[in-house]
Amino acid sequence: MTEKLPRPHRDDVLIALVSVLAGLLLWSLGVHSNTRPHFAPAWAALVPLLVMGALELLRRTTPAVTLSVGTVALVVDQFTVGNLATILMYTDLMYAAALYGKPAMARRLPVGTGLLTVAVTIGSVAWLRTPQALLIGVIAGIVSFGPAMTGATLRNHRDAAIAARLRAEQTALLAEMDRSQAVAAERARMARELHDMVANHLSAIAIHSTAALSIDSPATSREALGVIRENSVQGLAEMRRLIGLLREAGAGGDAVAVPTLDGLEALLTLARTNGAASGLEFVLHDDRPQDGPAAPTPVELAAYRIVQESLTNALKHAGPGAVTIRVTCEDGVLSVGVDSPYEGRHGPRAPGSGAGLIGMRERADLLGGTFTAGPVGPVWQVRATLPAEEGAVRA
Description:
Order of helices and strands: HHHHHHHHEHEEHEE
Mean pLDDT: 82
Radius of gyration: 43 Å
Number of helices: 10
Number of strands: 5
Low-confidence stretches: none
Strand order of the largest sheet: 1-2-3-5-4
Number of domains: 2
Helix content: 55-70%
Strand content: 5-15%
């Protein structure tokens, strides 16, 4: 099947109709553009006029073809009485070719018509040897170079506007992607904070409530209820601290104080209380230099949360024995290690989801550190290294 030509644009139909009617009016009034001797009858000037009118309908869809055929029609018009409307329609075809044609045509037309204008001017002056010969070059420039240059200039402005709009759309898209990633990262950070703060207390509550239900002893139940109450109060305080942190950050106020490694002793005190009934002992070896500078706040918080989550896992899964925590800082690297008994377990004391290990690994990765966790013989080892220098922490 043959491909149908697209329908002419409404403006092109209007231009063609008005131009042809104007040309017919000029021809009927005897107004001609060619005063040189010619041998064609007067009606012959209507042929290039009607051809130009038909070409105007295709000025947007096939600009290269219309310009080529229009050039032939313009030459034919010069051998008749001529019509001003034919010449004006040709200038519009030249303009449309530069505006709607291929990029190569838009670049070449101003150059080609400019050289043609110069050549016609020089040739006319050399042939006629009169100052009036310059008018021939001026007319050639008006008919060819002027429309081509105007179309190319307008095309450049149009392409620049399109490029600017695309850049604006791409910038808006990138901004939306950055916003989405920032929201996702903030949600992940909040999830880690919430898990690390609440899981420790809820695990202790679950373990001691199970003991109170399984052991029919008033003393044991009273001790378990005391531990449950203590963890409930501390868990509520941690939740309030997190809510206050979110509110202050959202209002642009001062940030709420976050846990640091200086609070490990208090953390271990709570762990000793929670793990006493399970036969767990907790030992801290803080080998950081006493007079050295503190690690950046994000590093201190990450190390504290890793220790906190490791103690929570020990309360859930470790067998009876000693849980050893060691913190060192050498050569700009903060190292955290937690060893807990891995053998002698009788199943988990409280259910776990595995989110704790994921959260610890994410904390280390976000700071450019390393994290490993797994059994080594009879011991479950947690190892994390974090950059302790301010400039080494990734944004």
